[in-house]
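Hello again, I could really use a second opinion on something today. I've been staring at a protein lately and its backbone has me curious. Please have a think about how the structure follows from the sequence. I owe you a coffee for this, so here goes:
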Amino acid sequence: MDYIIQPTEAEMSTSETPIVKSEPSQTLDLEMNSNGNSELMELKSNHTPYLEQLINQSVPEILESGVSIGVDLLQNLTNTLNTSQNPDVVAWLQRVKQLNESASPTRTVVGVVGNTGAGKSSVINALIDEERLLPTNCLRACTASPTEISWNYSDDPSALYQAEIEFVSAEDWLRELEVLFSDLLDPRGEVSKEASNPDTEAGVAYAKLKAVYPTKTKEMISQGTPERFANEPAVRGVLGSVKTLKEKSAKDLYGRLQRYVDSNEKLIGNDSKQQTPLIEYWPLIKVIRIFTKADALSTGAVIVDLPGVQDSNAARAAVASNYLMKCTGLWIVAPITRAVDDKTAKSLLGDSFKRQLKYDGTYSAVTFICSKTDDISVTEAADSLNLVREVNESYDKIEELKESKAKKQTSLKKLKDAKAACAEKIEEIEIKHDAWEGLLNQAKAGQTVYAPSDNPKKRKRRAKPRASRKSRVADRSGLDNDWEASEDDSSGKENSQTDQPLSAAAVEEEMASLKALRKTTRGEQRSLDARIENVRKEIREVEHERQEIPTKIKAACIQGRNDYSRGAIKQDFAMGIKELDQENAGEETELTFNPDEDIRDYEEVARALPVFCVSSRAYQKLSGRLQKDGFRSHGFLSVKDTEIPQLQQHAKKLTEAGRLSHCRRFLNDLTQLVNSLKLWAADDGTQTTLTDGGKRYQKLELLNLLSNFQKGFDGSVCETMQLLHRHLDEQIYRVFDTSIPLAVDAAPAIAESWGAPRTMGGLPWSTYKATVRRQGSYSGCSGPRDFNQELWEPVSRDLASGWDRGFQNRIPALLEDFLSQTKKQLQEFHKSTQALAQKRHTDVSGMATLRNQMLTHTRRLEQLPASLRAITTESSREANRAFVPVIRDLMRPAYDATTNENGLGSYGRMKVKMRDHVANIRHTMFRTATDTVKKRLQDMCRDVQKQMGNEMNDMSHIIFSEYMKVFVGTTVNRTTLSPKELAIRANVNDVLQCDSLFASAFNQPVKKGPEEMEGVVSTECEVADDAMQGIEYGSTRADELMQQQIRAQSQTDDESDYESQ
């Protein structure tokens, strides 16, 4: 440390530090213990400060609300401090600015990988609740470059959807053109005849060149060069640039994005007006970044849609591999129809991919997504899931319901007939009633009337609805129209005259009888209406039940397959990890290895793997989208059944750990800053009245304590670094020594196998040529091949377990031990300073602030292992990827030589050159690679040690400065601070009386599921209630004392200035 000073002889001879007692208002009361020693009485605040409560919270939303309040506080401090150019104030402004910059939201990067056509883009579109935002195409793979999707922080209504399209650099495109020209041109320098076959290397190269240079003919391509093509103005103008798009809707942004990522043939269609072909940009795109306000991204998740890891384009696979190193989460997408059959979870898309996860320590961050769960055959699923009996019973039930429906329809017809008969009867009654009503009118007029003839055969049906009763009475001709005259009118008259004449009373009696009959018939009709409605309802229910059965059958099959797939994938994944753990366990620890004992709890590994079986199409359809799509969401009774909502919650859940850590660190640093500023604001020269000699002695004692703390910390750092180097040596460096000879011995056979007959696993000439042309890495129709990785495989296989053990177990445990030691040293230092404070009667209010500050230092130390692990993790991922590039660089002469071979016998010469080169460099190649990585790991150790030192230096500087202010203060013969400086400190102190502001953070809504809210709501309500009740106690007693001191000094200076005037 730079703080150590030697005491003078006078100071060493001083038996006791001269002390001038402070004023009573400047200290708190002291208590005497049984031994007569004075102890600082604990400062009693009315409640735990709200800022302190926030730091201990485990709910991200509450912590983030606290961060927002803290940012406002920093702005208030900036405004207050900006009124002065004092060097101290400028330094405080710099600290405030740095802390404010650290408040930016965190990003949790999640990579989404899977084979081409796995449905990654469709799943992501559903995840962000957009029908189409990422490009999807059923005709070809769309994800040719990584696409990042993150939260849009802009509130501009015209920019709710934004995108950035970053293009490759000119250098990268030139290198790509060199490969394309090499693939496309034959030995004579002309375009290969295979250019017309899109499945060949030449066909792929020609398609890409024609996309970017649509006006170029084959002759122009053969006569051109990569340099001339790369420098064409239309292309040169976009290389290395970034295009920004802003739109109000997803549809508009998607349309503009398609201009860059899709083919012109699709965009233009058959528009004959388009004479000049347009350049296609998709081969030039490096990365696309999309910003949207999707709820699933609102907590900081960044979804990266990566090119297929087994894509036919090797460049796409390389981009995916590079992004995998940066991702903190990994989602593997596979169609559910293939996920289990292909054992995708166990193989994890290849042994090298699986081993890379172990090297990176990311297998615990894997999430498996089975897509396209709507793609199912009920018959096949029923057979596979042993649901045949249930399905047959369901179809039997359908037949029963069909028969039941037919019976009910028959009953309905009978009821309708009965109802029609009632209607007919009522009509007859109405006609009779009209006739008798006419007779009544005649009888009342004094005419003789007779009973009408009752012959139903003479009644005829009404062609039109009957007129109202009133109109019938008014129009007497209606009677003639309703009754036909007999064939012999005179005979009818004679017959009617034989009847007895009727009195008016007899007519009224007959009318009453008809009225009663009509009433009864209408009651029967209403009863029939009710029965008809009931039967119709029963028919609808039967039909609905019948239609629901196929949906339920499909739903049961989908759910059954989901459950089976979920369990199988979890088990396959755990077994894949187990195989990886045991891959070389026997060779590593031959004497102690027991294959019957598991290295880890693989059942827990299986349980911990998140697996989601999703249907993006069903989710979109049930959410009201895909209106033009004929897709039917049968088999999904609700959006929850699609499991997209669960995946959305999972995306938000992944961000919680990072958000909690980020917010706690910010709030702890804010607390530290507030405490430091309180000490500074209170440092007006009134805290201590020690003599100069007493101050030097006090400073000496404090520096000695700080020196002892520093020595202890340095010792812990030294011990930790020694152990770190030892772990690297045991787990990694020693494996280099044992595995390199194996790789040296295996190298010739590996090189020979590349050119072996195809029946023995060798490559055809075209694939061999394409592979060496791409520096040994290519993914063609026969699958991905990497010569460099295959040469390194013997070392990689042996090294994986030790690498994983070192970086995932030993180093984290080592850092936790370091934390325990430093925390203990810090506590001992503070205990020593407390004893010194009691002995010297140091300012009590300042000591209370230092005690609070010590809590922030402790929390800062607790965060140190995480920051150190971030260094080791990043260095580990970079280092374990450095082996193969070294092999590739050393193999480059062979690749170049074999690429230039043409003509008769060229394939044989290629194989000989490759074999000879491998034989010549195999004894040095692998050691060069390991030495390169070893240097990287040593650099990592230096970075870790530097980070430890930086943390300690920062902490020591703050501790020294603050303890000096409290223990030593200023000189007795001081120059009194100016009124302006005192006013600034007083204003800063006013701003710092802010604890009550953080009470509102506890009232923030918490976005959690019902099961997660259990036990949380009551606690937050209690905290909020306590916050509301305790606002009046915003400052602790120590803060009040500081404020009183500043106010008193400021008032005294003002009075002095006034008297002098």
Summary: The mean pLDDT is 79. The first strand starts at residue 30 and ends at 32. DSSP finds 37 helices and 15 strands in the chain. The CA atoms of residues 146 and 287 lie 5 Å apart.
